[in-house]
Amino acid sequence: MLPFLAFPYEVQLHIALCTACIDPLGPPIHLPALFASCRPIYDTLGRSHELHARIFRAKFDVSAAHRRFGPVAILSRNLAEQLKTYCTTLKRIRRGDIFAPTLEDDLWVAYLMLMESDGKNFVQLVEYAGLPSFADRLVRMRLNETQAPGGWPVENNVTSLAAWILWMVTNRRESSP
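Now predict its structure.
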């Protein structure tokens, strides 16, 4: 038996959480190595909603969702699912593909993250994903792709979300100390 597996579950959970948070920004990139070390560790921790919920709480904001949706928003299985969604979105924004087929979904997630930010979400989006430059490039390069009569950009979700996100990150960055 591996010595790690001899530890109580709470200790294993704490070690996995510390491993996930070595880098406070971005997805928990160090966890796959821990999970790949042996099948029992993956079976115990890799599928643990509790671990993924703790990682979410460490890296992202939960207060706003709790205020809006109540206790159901912070159930471990819901936070674990949000962790996957947020990390996937952060990675895709960081790649910078303003023509990605998932662009609209990613913009919706980023917009909601900004709306529910008490600080952590904003830092993840700005510092890790590079959202301000992504949104700026998106607005500059894609808004004039298609124009409505009169030369204005066509109103659609991508255009609206990009403009709002750019305003939100520009406004917050310029007004913060």
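The first helix runs from residue 3 to 6.
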